[in-house]
Amino acid sequence: TRSLCDWSSDVCSSDLGFMSMIRRQISIAATPRTVWNALTTAEGLGWLGAEARVDARAGGRITLKVKSAGDPVEETGIFHVFRPTAKLEITWDKFSKGPWKSMLTQVQVVRDRGETVVNVQHIGDALEDAAVRDGIDATWKRALMKLRDSLEETA
């Protein structure tokens, strides 16, 4: 049986210095293309519990309308890396009213023994606050399980 990896909060080194990071990984019984479409299309992002607008390309914008503390907020960012069926990086706007402001989300999609592995890293100084880190980590845990469940139901 597959499972979602236990959460870990790490400190990583980057060009910006040391920052806190959340890492999550999940295996999904679906093709990389199917997973990619669920990560990068407005129709596919329903698993995140969000309304979405997506300009799926390097330099394109992404806007997610999500619930934060029960209220809807918009998280807006830019795709800095966009390698179809393989990797994406989104930098979230610093003016966002949501918890992801000024953070970086990196997602890798890798085929492994008939399944697709999704690796997520969510990076930012705000994760040094335990409440913020725990909330974002719980969001990724729930969201990735919903992603897996929604894609495996349709397989």
Provide a compact summary of the structure.
With 155 residues, the protein is of the alpha+beta class. It is built from 2 helices and 8 strands. The longest helix is centred in the last third of the chain and has 25 residues, at 130-154.
Map the helices and strands.
Blueprint: E1 8-14, E2 17-28, H1 32-40, E3 51-54, E4 61-68, E5 71-83, E6 87-92, E7 104-112, E8 115-123, H2 130-154
Antiparallel strand pairs: 1-2, 2-8, 3-4, 4-5, 5-6, 6-7, 7-8
Fraction in helix = 10-25%
Uncertain residue ranges = 1-18
Which radius of gyration do the C-alpha atoms yield?
A: 15 Å
Strand numbers in spatial order across the main sheet: 1-2-8-7-6-5-4-3
Order of helices and strands: EEHEEEEEEH
- Give the biggest beta sheet: 8 strands, antiparallel
Provide an overview of this structure:
The radius of gyration is 15 Å and the shape is globular. The longest helix is centred in the last third of the chain and has 25 residues, at 130-154. A hairpin with a 2-residue loop joins strand 1 and strand 2 (17-28). It starts with 7 loop residues before the first strand and ends with a helix. With 155 residues, it is of the alpha+beta class. It is built from two helices and eight strands; from the N terminus they run E-E-H-E-E-E-E-E-E-H. Strands 1-2-8-7-6-5-4-3 form an eight-stranded antiparallel β-sheet, with helices on one face.
